[in-house]
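Q: Structure tokens for this one, please.
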Amino acid sequence: MKKLLVGLALVLGPALAQTQLKVGVILPLSGPSAVAGKAALNGIQLAADEANAGGKVRMELVVVDDGTDPSKAVPAFTKLMTVDRVDIVIGGLASGVTFALSGPVKQYGPLFLAIGAASSVVEQAFEGYPLFFHYHPWDYHNVAAALQFFQYLNREHGAKKVAILYEDGPFGSAGIKVYQEQLKKLGYKVQAEPYKTGSGQFTPILNRFRAFQPDILYWIGYDVDALPIAAQTRQVGLRPKLIYGAPPSWPIGFEKNPLSQDVAGMTAWLPTLSNLESRRFVEAYRKKYGEVTEEYMAPMGYVIAKSLALAAERAGSADKNRIAEALAGLTMDTPFGRLSFKPSDTGKTRYQGFGPEIWLQFQYIQGTRRPVFPKEKASVPLRYPGEYYLR
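A: Here is the predicted structure, written as tokens:
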């Protein structure tokens, strides 16, 4: 009997020592941000699988769809809190949805790990909440990175006019005044107009832009708008020297459409980046899913779940407060570079992960995204103006 008990202890010991985490995941698996949401979920699941295989942390994911819609997100989040009874949540991709969740998050008090939600409106909404960790750069970080590119276009290519087409929600409109002011300081003439996400109708605005004759058409919105904007720009006879987009993700298959040729954009990651953690992620993602993604929300989700597992391991506990304490002191290498947390630039939130340094500019060239700026990350020169606009 004594030998049996010893044997059971040896068998069960590792399992008993394993930290069990039940993690809510709220992402847009439908709606305008579905491409980014599904990519993020793939990354989260990959990291959870790796943690579970490691044996020290067991991560159970409870996934709900926010539909990129605040009216769907709030009840979905409430279900995680009251039915599934989780106290750690990964989510907050779209800014409008995350803003709507700020009240319920403060009410129920989970450890909330935000994967997107770049709008500083969200930063203000979560001000003072002690369990809010924001990994993605804020909109003012995005502005800083984009403005470096526009400064280059002005200096090296003589770009003088930019038309800004932006969605009217928190994601598109939060930093628009700063963009306009800073672009004017760089010597640009600026014309900006909002649009409603998902409408698909841009012709009236593009016709007004045609009279302005911009060198650059800059649109800030979601992936669903990419193809209609590229198509209608051509249909109305608008010929900018560059279309530059800033969605959180691009539509699946966009690179195969001839309209994508020479369109430029900003991303935090591409699978061609050479750092060691990026190569490891690409290899693991390909092994699990049989393909390689270009959506940066996939490694962003992976980094969040990976850091959560590491923090839980160091805390030796599933307690959200002890995990938060371990996470706050965490430093780790990631596909984006080094991650550590510090107060946001405004001081409104306590734990900010990445900043403007992770952004790079790319261009669709012959069906692939090629880094073009900054120079240390570029694989090919920028095509300005691209062949598409010269035809």
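A few notes: The first strand starts at residue 19 and ends at 27. The first helix runs from residue 2 to 17.
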